[in-house]
Write a structure and sequence with these properties.
- By secondary structure, this protein is mainly alpha-helical.
- The protein has one domain: Sodium/glucose cotransporter (Up-down Bundle).
- 74% of the residues lie in helices and 2% in strands.
- The chain is built from 20 helices and 4 strands.
- Strands 1-4 form a two-stranded antiparallel ribbon. The protein has a two-stranded antiparallel sheet with strand order 2-3.
- Helix 3 packs antiparallel against helix 11, helix 7 crosses helix 16 and helix 8 packs across helix 14.
């Protein structure tokens, strides 16, 4: 290992040591009860809530997936996706956060999203809880795998180390502090990691502009690539039979710009719908200590998100001007942030900055592991199999689940050529369509019935899978991002089935009519 690598590793080791220590610090408090372990005792302040929600949401996708798309095909895909996410984030904080904080407490002090759905409709047989828990396990296993891919690519790109080995080691580090410290350790490290991600993006954005010769030179170079900076066209790399971009005289070749029509713009904006059903964000709304602090959290979250998304997209674009022929596939282009960090920063600071990537992957995968563990332990083990289970037994079941998902996630992440962006987009659609429409109607429409809720949840999940596999390849309007048809169909099904079935019991309606009076 050369001297510069030693300093990079040293900086990253300091970071790893800090986050694992946080797990030990919170271990005693988190193990005092399942509510502490899964929800932090509903005691999070506005800063912790905001940065934890955004850091766990964005994951390594923000620092690798999004810049990779911008580097390879230009601004359009990355820009419209970022705009959709920013709009969706604001609407989620504005219309869901306060109501869910209040209603989750009214609904028998629900501590997980499946808990909330089941308690909201007084589902004594736990049908909703079970379906929601199974959906969480399915899509969060995929999500967790995307984070492990991020970790593997990070170390393989930085040091040339074996991808699979480093992916597994990184996964074990995430597992350790989630296993030990529970929700409080996850949220506290999210605060650190969200700050680090923000600093890393801002630093590399400014540095890459300087490396490219200033704003004017950068823009001039990128404008020479057909459609690269357009929001209504897309750059089309010329690729060989192996799928790699062709390079001549050190410059990558592009065909004429491709059309980026209304369907693809709508697909990008549709990403915002996913927020209404994202468990790792919704759980943060449930855990804030008082609903009056949500407005402050929303402001913090939006500033963080807009700056971070803008920086990530710009890093990918500017990276094409700084190292135009470095990456020949979209999967490899997802390492552009890492390579720029290595080029632009002294070794020790490079280590701190690229820890932002590991931070992002850790914050998200730990949330996914914890929510999956709670879904199995609290909703299936205690909710169905052993209703008299003690807190200690519930937490043992959760940790067994964490171990199983760790192993399965590592298996799914073994392919080094996996695209982080594509993996995340599929899981994002699954959650958005399954839980989003039901969450909105649960909070705003008292006539929603349990039958409608079950039908809508299943419709959303099945539509995403079927649309992605069989309908999307047909192209045209059928090529729209599967989240949109899944969300719309689920919404319609919930309304229609609710109107065709008897209205909810009086106690359900009473809960709905009075839940906003809580936490005043």
């Amino acid at each position: 290992m050369i001297e510069s690598d030693v300093w990079v590793v040293f900086a990253m080791l300091i970071y790893f040591a800090v986050v694992v220590c946080i797990g030990f610090v919170y271990a005693k408090r988190s193990n005092s009860s399942s509510e502490e372990y899964f929800l932090g005792g509903r005691g999070l302040g506005p800063w912790l809530t905001a940065l934890s929600a955004e850091a766990s949401d964005m994951s390594g996708w923000l620092l690798m997936g999004l810049p990779g798309v911008a580097y390879f095909t230009g601004a359009s895909d990355a820009m419209w996706t970022a705009i959709g996410l920013a709009i969706g984030t604001y609407l989620n904080w504005k219309f869901v956060a306060k109501r869910l904080r209040k209603y989750s407490e009214k609904a028998n002090n629900s501590i997980t999203v499946p808990d909330f759905f089941s308690n909201r409709f007084h589902d004594g047989k736990h049908v909703l809880m079970t379906i929601a828990a199974l959906i969480i396990i399915l899509f969060f296993t995929i999500y967790t795998a995307s984070c492990f891919v991020t970790v593997g690519k990070l170390f393989a790109t930085l040091f040339g180390w074996d991808y699979a080995t480093m992916m597994i080691i990184g996964a074990i580090i995430v597992f350790l502090y989630t296993f030990l410290g529970g929700y409080l350790s996850v949220c506290t490290t999210d605060l650190i990691q969200g700050s680090l991600m923000f600093f890393a993006l801002a630093t590399i954005f400014v540095g890459s502009v300087t490396a490219a010769g200033g704003v004017d030179n950068t823009v001039a170079f990128l404008q020479s690539i057909p459609g690269f900076l357009s929001g209504t066209e897309i750059a089309v790399p010329i690729v060989d039979e192996a799928g790699k971009q062709v390079v001549e005289n050190g410059q990558p070749l592009f065909a004429e710009a491709g059309a980026y029509g209304l369907v693809t713009i709508v697909s990008g904006l549709a990403w915002g719908l996913g927020y209404f059903g994202m468990p790792q964000v919704l759980i943060r709304f449930m855990s804030i200590r008082h609903s009056s602090e949500i407005k402050k959290s929303r402001l913090i979250a939006m500033i963080w998100l807009v700056v971070s998304l803008s920086s990530a997209v710009c890093i990918g674009l500017i990276g094409r001007a700084v190292i135009p022929a470095e990456f020949l596939t979209q999967a490899s282009a997802e390492s552009v942030f890492i390579v720029l960090s290595r080029m632009l920063l002294p070794s020790f600071f490079c280590g701190l900055v690229v820890s932002g990537i590991f931070a992002a992957a850790m914050s998200s995968s730990s949330s996914y592991l914890l929510i999956s563990g709670s879904a199995v332990a609290n909703n299936i083990f205690k909710g169905l199999l052993k209703r008299d289970a003690t807190d200690s037994q519930v937490m043992i079941a959760a940790r067994v689940t964490l171990t199983a998902i760790l192993i399965l996630g590592c298996f799914l992440a073994l392919d080094q050529d996996s695209s982080i962006f594509n993996i995340v987009s599929y899981a994002w659609a699954g959650f958005g369509a399954s839980f989003g429409p039901l969450m909105l109607l649960s909070l705003y429409w008292r006539r929603t019935t349990m039958q409608g809720a079950v039908a809508g949840m299943l419709t959303g999940a099945c539509t995403v899978v079927v649309w992605n596999m069989f309908i999307k390849p047909l192209g045209g309007w059928f090529g729209v991002y599967e989240l949109l048809p899944g969300f719309v169909l689920a919404l319609v099904v919930i309304v229609v089935v609710s109107l065709l079935t008897p209205e909810p019991k009086q106690e359900v309606l009473d809960d709905f009519d009075t839940y906003m009076e809580l936490d005043v």
